[in-house]
Design brief:
The complex is a heterodimer of chains A (321) and B (304). Chain A is mostly helical. Chain A contains twelve helices and three strands. Chain A has three domains: 37 residues, no CATH class; 44 residues; 203 residues, MetI-like fold (Orthogonal Bundle), CATH 1.10.3720.10. In chain A, 69% of the residues lie in helices and 4% in strands. Chain B is of the alpha/beta class and 304 residues long. Chain B has two domains: 200 residues, P-loop containing nucleotide triphosphate hydrolases (Rossmann fold), CATH 3.40.50; 69 residues, no CATH class. Helix content of chain B is 35%, strand content 22%. Chain B contains ten helices and ten strands. In chain B, the strands form two sheets. A six-stranded mixed β-sheet of chain B has the order 6-7-8-3-9-10, with helices on both faces. A four-stranded antiparallel β-sheet of chain B has the order 2-1-4-5. In chain B, β1 and β2 form a beta hairpin. Chain B is globular. The chains are: A mainly alpha (321), B alpha/beta (304).
Chain lengths: 321, 304
């Protein structure tokens, strides 16, 4: 124990340690899930009936409470009838990791061919398209607006109070309106993501722009830079690494609006997949879909972080120059 | 310290030095500052940063501006650069009023202010590109100026890869490539360690000797001012006003060894007198700090 604490307290320096700790942060929750799923005496609050015996309302594959199962076993024994037989099990909403892994494999390798049960890859692709368009439209408006608000105080004072007010209006509240205006298909979904992202985006990017060192702009002015060139040659390149980081965080937010957005109008995308599977009580597939969202989001961010290292070679260990 | 050492007056100039100042005075005026004043609207009413500042500088003169903190020396140099507008008075460069920043006045900041996203070479190329030169011409010039400050080898490095002294060399090259009439330097070596600082001072004098440029150099370091300057503009604080414009009697070329010469010490004594007069009354919060010293060590365990 002491060794572990010393190892953790050392701050986990060194590349190998960092990787080990990173892997550990995923393995620990997985380990907890495995323990709860596979070790019967930890939870397993239900009993999965394998043979109902003479209990008239028990059926094979039925999950009943452990206490009810015990009562029925003693009832049957008292009346000399066949007692029910079952194995301890978790509630249906907590499938085991193995079942989820299997569902994951099945959903991606042999997706459902029927149209009423949506396939996971197709649903996911639909969702990614919604995110892409929503985030693109939001960025096309929000990034320039944010940079202008941050650069020119008058512009900021004119735009920011209203945006500050608007960002408190919850995006899903515009659902009905969006459907009325944009129909029931992808239009309102994209609109909800835009509404959810845009206003935060303007404020965050305006703030980032304001944090640019004032002397950089001043230095450029003493070198003969004027007006629009100050914006394009100093402000924008100066904030670019931070702007990129902001965009990464905002993209994460766009994903959180996705589920609500997809419930608006006709359900679609990964949300439709999840709700359909939950309706059939295919909870392993529900988990597989939720985990897929995590993997896609986390993976995108990881790739974007990698790209940033290439794009901004000066933005490393830099305090100011 | 001057009393015991029996120094000459800082006003005594050797024949050589006097002749040199005569030659400087014969050169045309490059910068005229007339009745300059600056007021800010501060939190506790208006603050007067500068009042009635007037002086003029001749071409290729090296002038240091010195003064206690709060004397508005940074404000002064920012007004000269055109980054701030004066509340009163005017600044004339070659007889024309300064109305905003421009490439005719180069500026070097204490915090370097290099563009971190540009390589050293591109930083230096920035000025010419902004002033309408072609890329190849800008690049050729940039390499020449980098050579002059001794950084050709680092042309493709990013600013964050350089030491403080090297960054300031880049900043100097970046300002000089525009061939400004006047180079404004706002405590440029303030963040450097003593050794780098001495090296940079020597280097700056070399550059100044070889380039047609007039230097206005802000500092709070008395030795630095005497070592570099032809004349030293001494400001006083609250509000910033001109106390004296001292002609430095130390002959050129300057060497670090001169800091022990009589002229140098006399000038320094005079600056000390102007900048650190009788200790001013302590501020309220300063007086509130009364250390109560307790002996934590053995009585016999003395360090002094």
């Amino acid at each position: 124990m002491g060794v572990i604490f010393k190892w953790l307290a050392d701050g986990g320096q060194g590349a190998r340690r960092r990787v080990l700790l990173g892997v550990g942060s995923f393995l620990l929750p997985l380990l907890a899930w495995c323990l709860v799923s596979y070790v019967p005496f930890i939870w397993h609050s239900k009993v999965l009936i394998t043979d109902p015996g003479d209990v008239d309302y028990f059926q094979v594959d039925m999950r009943v409470d452990r206490s009810m199962f015990r009562d029925e076993v003693s009832n049957m024994e008292k009346t000399h009838q066949a007692p029910p037989v079952g194995t301890p099990a978790n509630p249906i909403y907590l499938p085991a990791p193995g079942a989820v892994a299997h569902a994951f494999y099945k959903d991606f390798v042999h997706p459902s061919p029927y149209t009423d049960t949506p396939s996971l890859p197709a649903s996911l692709w639909h969702s990614i398209k919604i995110i892409f368009w929503g985030f693109l439209i939001s960025s096309l408006i929000g990034v320039p607006l944010g940079i202008l608000s941050g650069t020119y105080p008058a512009f900021g004072r004119l735009s920011e109070p209203f945006i500050e007010f608007f960002r408190y209006l919850p995006a899903p509240a515009f659902g009905a309106l969006a459907v009325a205006i944009l129909g029931i298909f992808d239009g309102p979904k994209i609109a909800i993501i835009v509404i959810g992202t845009l206003f935060q985006q303007v404020l965050i990017i305006a703030n980032t722009t304001r944090k640019l060192e004032a002397t950089l702009v001043e230095a450029a002015r003493t070198l003969g830079t004027k007006r629009l060139r100050l914006l394009t040659r100093v402000v924008v390149p100066g904030i670019l690494p931070d702007l990129y980081r902001d965009q990464r965080i905002l993209l994460g937010w766009a994903w959180t609006y996705l589920i609500v957005a997809e419930l608006i109008g006709t359900s679609s995308g990964i949300t439709w997949f999840i709700t359909q599977q939950a309706r059939y009580q295919h909870f392993a597939d529900v988990y597989a879909a939720i985990i897929t969202i995590g993997i896609v989001g986390f993976g995108t961010d990881w790739v974007l972080a990698r790209i940033a290292r290439r794009l901004f070679p000066w933005d490393r260990g830099l305090i100011h120059a | 310290m001057n009393r015991e050492l029996n120094l000459p007056s800082y006003l005594d100039q050797s024949a050589v030095v006097r002749a040199r100042f005569q030659r400087i005075r014969e050169r045309e005026l490059i910068l005229e500052v007339r009745k300059l004043g600056k007021r800010y609207a501060g939190a506790q009413g208006a603050v007067e940063a500068l009042r009635d500042i007037s002086f003029s500088i001749h071409r290729r003169e090296f002038v240091c501006v010195i003064g206690p903190s709060g004397c508005g020396k940074s404000t002064l140099v920012r007004i000269l650069a055109g980054l701030e507008r004066p509340s009163a008075g005017e600044v004339l460069l070659d007889g024309k009023a300064v109305a905003g920043p421009g490439p005719d006045r180069g500026m070097v900041f204490q915090g370097y202010s290099l563009f971190p996203w540009l390589t050293v070479k591109k930083n230096v190329m920035f000025g010419p590109e902004m002033n309408g030169y072609g890329k190849s011409e800008a690049e050729r010039d940039a390499l020449m100026w980098l050579d002059l400050v001794g950084l050709s080898r680092f042309a493709n490095a990013y600013p964050h890869e350089l030491s403080g002294g090297m960054r300031q060399r880049v900043a100097i090259a970046r300002a000089l490539i525009n061939q400004p009439r006047i180079l404004l330097m706002d405590e440029p070596f303030g963040a450097l360690d003593a050794q780098t600082r001495a090296k940079m001072q020597m280097h700056l004098l070399e550059v100044w000797k070889n380039v047609d440029v007039t230097v206005v150099f802000i500092t709070h370091d008395l030795d630095e001012a005497i070592y570099l300057a032809d004349r030293i503009l001494v400001l006083k604080a609250h509000p910033g006003e001109v106390q004296e414009l001292i002609e430095v009697p130390v002959p050129r070329p300057r060497q670090p060894a001169q800091s022990l010469s009589a002229e140098f010490l006399a000038t320094k004594a005079r600056l000390e007198e102007l900048i650190h007069p009788a200790p001013p009354p302590e501020a309220e919060e300063e007086r509130a700090i009364k250390p109560h010293m307790i002996r934590f060590t053995n009585v016999a365990d003395n360090v002094e």
